[in-house]
Design goal:
Helix content is 47%, strand content 18%. The protein has eleven helices and eight strands. The radius of gyration is 18 Å and the shape is globular. InterPro entries: AB_hydrolase_1 (IPR000073), AB_hydrolase_fold (IPR029058), AB_hydrolase_sf (IPR050266).
Length: 272
C-alpha cells in the first residue's frame, strides 16, 4: 500500500504484478478492493495500477468538485508516480470512470496503449438542470449534515453490503467498515454524483475536439444478466461510435469486475 500526493490530497495507490501497465479505475462510490478478482488474473501478465480518487477508498478528502479534465489529469499524475519510463498504459474505466478513462485516451493519446470501458456510463443527450455552484453547494451541505449526525458510521457499511452482495473474507469486512464508515467517502460520492452531468457534457465536447488515436484498441464490455435489452443496445451503440470491439459479460450485474472478472481480464489482455 502506498500514497501519492496530488493537488495536496493523498491518493491511495496499489501496484501489483509485472509487464505492460494497465490502470483500473472504479465507478462512483467504489474502492480499490472491488478490482481484487481482476487483479488476480492480470498480475502474472500486467503491472496493475489501482487508485482511489479523492473522497473514495482510502484517499484523502475531496477538496474540490471533480471535472472531467481534472480526472484525466489525475490518471496521468498517478502514472507519473508509479510508471518509471512512462510506458503507455491500458486504461480501464468502470461506470462513471469510463468517462474519465475515455477522456484520458483523448487528451493523452501518446500515453494510451488501449482503452477498456467496463459497463461504462452512457449519456446520449447530457444536460444539467441547475447551476454547478448550486449543486456542489447542496452536496457539501448535505454531506456535512449527514456526517455530523453520524450517518456514515451508523449505516454506511451496512448499505455497502446490501448494495454489493458477495463481499467476503475477513479483510473485506474490515476494509468495508474502514471505507464506508468514513464521512469523506459519503462527501466524495455526493460530489461525484451531483457533477455527473457536467462530466457527460465535458466528454461530449472532448469527443468533438480530440479524436481517439488512430488504431487505438478500444473494447466496450457490457454487463448483461437477462432482460436489460435497452441498456445492452446503448452499450452496443457506444462501441459503434468509438469503433470499439463490443463484448458482453453474461451473466453479470453492473459490477462486472466482481461478477465476471475473467471477461475484464480478457479484454485487458487483448490490448498490447
Amino acid at each position: 500500500m502506498s500514497f501519492v500526493r496530488i493537488g495536496g490530497v493523498p491518493h491511495h495507490v496499489e501496484v501489483t504484478g509485472s509487464g505492460p501497465v494497465c490502470v483500473l479505475s472504479a465507478g462512483l462510490g467504489l474502492a480499490w478492493f472491488d478490482w481484487d478478482p481482476v487483479v488476480e488474473l492480470l498480475a502474472p501478465w500486467r503491472t496493475v495500477v489501482r487508485f482511489d480518487r479523492p473522497g473514495s477508498g482510502l484517499s484523502g478528502h475531496a477538496r474540490v468538485a471533480p471535472t472531467l479534465g481534472g480526472e484525466a489529469e489525475r490518471i496521468a499524475r498517478i502514472l507519473d508516480a508509479v510508471n518509471p519510463g512512462g510506458r503507455p498504459a491500458t486504461v480501464v474505466g468502470h461506470s462513471l470512470a469510463g468517462f474519465h478513462c475515455e477522456a484520458f485516451a483523448r487528451l493523452f493519446p501518446a500515453r494510451t496503449a488501449g482503452l477498456v470501458l467496463v459497463d461504462s456510463s452512457v449519456e446520449e443527450r447530457p444536460r444539467v438542470r441547475a447551476s454547478r455552484e448550486v449543486r456542489v453547494g447542496a452536496a457539501r451541505v448535505c454531506g456535512a449534515v449527514l456526517s455530523g449526525v453520524g450517518v456514515p458510521r451508523a449505516v454506511g457499511p451496512a448499505l455497502r453490503r446490501v448494495a454489493v452482495r458477495g463481499d467476503s473474507g475477513a479483510s473485506s469486512v474490515e476494509e468495508v467498515r474502514r471505507v464506508y464508515g468514513a464521512s469523506r467517502v459519503l462527501r466524495g460520492s455526493l460530489l461525484e454524483y451531483v457533477t455527473y452531468g457536467d462530466a457527460a457534457l465535458e466528454l461530449t465536447t472532448l469527443r468533438r475536439e480530440f479524436p481517439l488515436r488512430e488504431r487505438l484498441p478500444v473494447t466496450v464490455l457490457a454487463a448483461y444478466s437477462g432482460g436489460a435489452v435497452g441498456w445492452l443496445a446503448r452499450q452496443r451503440a457506444l462501441a459503434a461510435s468509438l469503433g470499439a470491439t463490443f463484448r458482453v459479460a453474461e451473466p453479470s450485474g453492473h459490477l462486472v469486475m466482481r461478477d465476471a472478472p475473467g471477461g475484464v481480464a480478457e479484454a485487458v489482455l487483448s490490448t498490447p
